[in-house]
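Batch job 17 of 40 flagged for manual review because the log was empty.
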Amino acid sequence: MPTTTRAPKPQTTPLTSPRYLFPANADVLGQEARAGLEGCRDRLEQLLTIVGPRTLKDLLVPYDRLLLELSDLLGQTKFLFDVHPDAAVRATADKWYQEAERFATDLALNRPLYDAFVTLDVSQEDPETKYAVHKILRDFRLAGVDQDEATRARIKELRDEIIAIGQEFDRTIREDVRSVPFDPEDLAGLPEDYVKAHPPGPDGKVAITTQYPDALPVFRYAKDPEVRRRLQREYLNRGHPANEGTLTRLIEARNDLARLLGYPSFADYVVQDKMVGSARAIEDFLKQVRAASEERAKEDAERLLARKRRDVPGAMSLEAWDTNYYSELVRAEDFAFDSKLLRPYFPFPKVREGLFALTRELFGVRYERVTGVPVWHPSVDVYDVFDGPKRLGRFYLDLHPRKDKYTHAAASILIRGIRGASLPQAALMCNFPDPKEGPALMEYLDVETFFHEFGHLLHAIFAGDGRWVKNTDDGIEWDFIEAPSQMLEEWVRDPDVLRRFAHHHETGEPVPAEFVAKLKRADAVARGLDTQRQLVLGTLSLGYYNRDPKDLDPTAFLEDTYRQFPLVPFHRGTHFQCNFGHLNGYSAIYYTYMWSLVIAKDLFSKFQEGKGIVDPAVARRYRETILAPGSAKPAARLIEEFLGRPFAFDAFEEWLTKEGR
């Protein structure tokens, strides 16, 4: 990996050290978080001492710095809660995250502050400033600041309750890691490196956990359906029964909040600052995707069932533990593509190096490794991002599984970049195979995930030179924020790009061209069925939050939703809603993944029109038009400026219905 060879030139904007991120222990974290929150309170008090007409200098500027300090405290304590190996630090981080969220609620309900912004005259200011103030006022109103005092007090109680319940929901999922014992012969069909990495214990049994690096290969490759069924049952029952009641309390509290604010449901409330605009529009969008995917999903289900009948003559249906397995078999047998054969070409260090090289070339940046700085775990790597002599920001990579760490993949903003105040710092937390424990061969889908999450990280870095916090990633419409990261996945699907870094971990030979050529068509296997599964998740997310919850039975609703999509098999006796973490973080708006994918496919079409998808000229325009502005303009306008037109459904529908047939 690249290392620092010279000191960067002095920067106007400092790379500030995170105050809370690297505590020596829980006590230090508590002291610094307390000081940070007290600093926020002091800033607020000073803001409210000024009387008379307000100006940008004495209102927006200090308020923006308050938001910046608060966002850093929130982002870092939430991150520590997810990744820190010390239980005491995690507990302290949880405590101060909730304290900071309570302050954020108080801030959003501060009527004198809102009244000051109402009178702020920005008619002569630049469009970026006007848009920031527009969002500030909108968010105050969505918080309920214009309600009477008694209502505001109840809103605060509910918001504090929702934060605490949500943390409880997430904690239960993270800590409920289960293990299923198998005989060594039960691993038949799994890759050789996986089997070697899972030797029998003293009792002769192989323990397979529900951590996804352990579980997903079993779902894809284990020949014995009973093995797949047993592990999937535990995987889908994580968080149950504890989260059954927790989810009910979360749904009820959010519904109470929405009704208090004058909305018929939490779904109607939470979309007010999204591109989609209304809960009804979510329903219409999901229907549009369903109509587009239905025919292909039927073809997919028939193809997989036909293959299953070769193993189980007379089989009448697919089971939930069949779809991944038979999708892989169809890829191998019908398209001569076995994703197991890709694994030797995806050793983790080579994938990371390839991702770095590609994004350096596309976006004209370089990554310089930083050593000797504090981190929360020895496995964490640190890099600074440069564009020529200019340092743009810093990122941290925490990419391998360990006990009590967040079990999926995500990007987190640790420090928001604001021009003249601080450079952005962000982190990836993933769970890819660890090179210290073997060849660390990745699944193809792991490689996609790495590119996806790195797309979030680059978005945070490139957008880190805005003037106002409300115009950073903090203000990006949530149903757009996934689009840039989804688009970066497209480069993994290009044979020429893949051969740049997909080299055999033993021989160093690039993945065979004829093998990669089959990838695109094989990748389309079960695409319609996969889309229908995403519709199940979107329907669940919306359905838990778009109705009065007093008569809602979450498990019954889960089963009913699967019945609405009969092509997607349901694993009876499981309680997926108890480990569907997005029901907390995304609430009613899981549709955003599919909505963003529609946009991502349209954005990528511009790269396909050029001199090839690795075209720095198109990438530079994309960086400057889509990524760098953050949320200085509405997402729809950013998209239109890049495409030269509003975004459309066509590219997505082409990908969904025709590609790979």
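Reviewer: the log was empty due to a logging misconfiguration, but the result itself is present. Residues 1-12 have pLDDT under 50 and may be disordered. Unflagging and moving on to job 18.
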